[in-house]
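Tutorial sheet, problem 5. The two components below are modelled jointly, 674 residues in total.
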Amino acid sequence: MTDMLHLSPEALESLSMRVLRHHGLDEAHAGAITRVVIAGQRDDCQSHGVYRILDCVRTIRAGKVNTAAQPRLVDGAGSIVRVEADFGFAPLAFERGLDPLTHLARRQGIGALVIRHCVHFSALWPEIEALTERGLVALALTPSHAWVAPAGGRRPALGTNPIAFGWPRSGRDPYVFDFATSAIARGDLELHRRSGQPLPTGCGVDAEGRPSTDPLAVMAGAMLTFGGHKGSALSTMVELMAGALIGDWLSSESLDHDAGAKASPCHGELILAFDPAVFGDSAESQARAETLFEAIESQGARLPSQRRYAARARSREQGIAVPRALYQEIQALAPDA
Amino acid sequence: MTDMLHLSPEALESLSMRVLRHHGLDEAHAGAITRVVIAGQRDDCQSHGVYRILDCVRTIRAGKVNTAAQPRLVDGAGSIVRVEADFGFAPLAFERGLDPLTHLARRQGIGALVIRHCVHFSALWPEIEALTERGLVALALTPSHAWVAPAGGRRPALGTNPIAFGWPRSGRDPYVFDFATSAIARGDLELHRRSGQPLPTGCGVDAEGRPSTDPLAVMAGAMLTFGGHKGSALSTMVELMAGALIGDWLSSESLDHDAGAKASPCHGELILAFDPAVFGDSAESQARAETLFEAIESQGARLPSQRRYAARARSREQGIAVPRALYQEIQALAPDA
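Model answer (structure tokens):
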């Protein structure tokens, strides 16, 4: 049984800010990162919670992020908002692009937010939820590090390349999914390695291309995509859309740049936002979506993100649970208050 | 060994036009359908080739399509082109929207083509290729008939909901994928039923929700999505984007409308087009994409659609192969020339 602390958002925020400021991030960057990792911890996403503060610090120490970066809007064109993150962390870049993207989607029906040259460590659902809170439908794609072989291959060529989508629901938690196109998330692979547990079958191959359930062998070989050739095609689409199309790095380039530092990946991000009110009648589209959700839930199937929302409700009541050992590890990175 | 005829595109075109005109379609509709089914036959997509002429005729006879429909552009807004198909067949509606969508994507970077109330029987890749031929990146989504259970469920709530994507390659066949989000295509399920072959595992459940490989049992129960909960989430996204968002039917509504007629589904379609030249530097994005394709192919993995392109090359040399029995079945639907 893990020894857990239950903390207020304010206590966690103060810890996160202290660590990140101490490692050279300004108030704006530290604040944006803190909001994202606390949201993850609140939702019991251990792999995208305050644990990521350790990643941020490692990335800073490895010199793989521009701590002085000032993400700025650059010349967008048409339905595209472009934020140059200048090799800084992604969360602030997203926050800077959020209002312009919202305006664009409301005016044009669709907007694209292109973030270039960001160091990326977060889940995509916080960004998706920021858009669904504004009544927008959202789709987000990013490359990562090239750890994943294409279907029929044996060598890494693709990232874990997440796809996230959100649909706003009035008065309810939004419909949101956010998953890696790899069969297993990199964080889960890492957890299996640490615990010595074998992987489920179908997650990876060893360096000779043979199916393997050994985490170390898969790390030396390649991870596989979910869903065979279909997942592989989707992962390729993520590289093309959120890499080649927007003029930013592929997952292979991000991994080359990392050069063994094990820092967070550096690449771009593409976020599309759609305004149902421009596409048609919002009330009608809401009603139809609810019919679908009802058809899914009434047969005992679950909508995605329900586990997160349940954890969120728990955190509101009991405080945010953080493993004591993790808390202490983070605390050790900060100077005493 | 199936007895095959090898026909010129002109001979097939003349047959298709004769049948479709005879069943009440005007020159424009018959022409658009003919182009799509001949492309499918040429690429050896038997389930989306001239076989679909039989579907069209069945749908016409069932009174489930408006043969007099004149698809027309209606008030689009912002980055959206809208075509009202008026319950006619989809291919002409797409052709009518193609130029405006292209203009929009070139001006704004992104355009959406919304087709509403179309009777849909075709693969999506002909539409994707029409856009990649113009140098655009394309993503297309449609619902279908509700035959597919969500992950964790046992009753149909989703369609086979294809997702198709294309990336233009200069001087080469485009990168294109087009797949059902169901574990098996409906046409393949039908082929298994006819041949009495068991399905691969994981394709469906019987009426009691138990995993089954019996095509008849799955038809009475439900098909499953590919890739477990991830495929199920993507399929749900297709319903939301190409149904609820655009103000058109869900797959469940399409099936209700069908009322046992076994006609082609009736719903909407969402096609997004992206112009790399507006997003950034086309040459750079092309070069980066080619780096990725090379990383995939150099390890012996295949890009999607290669089987189609090989068949296309064969058809150019040898004529288009059509099973003799199918040819005769289609011919029997036409008055003698």
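Marking note: Chain A touches chain B through 69 residues (CB under 8 Å). Full credit if you identified this.
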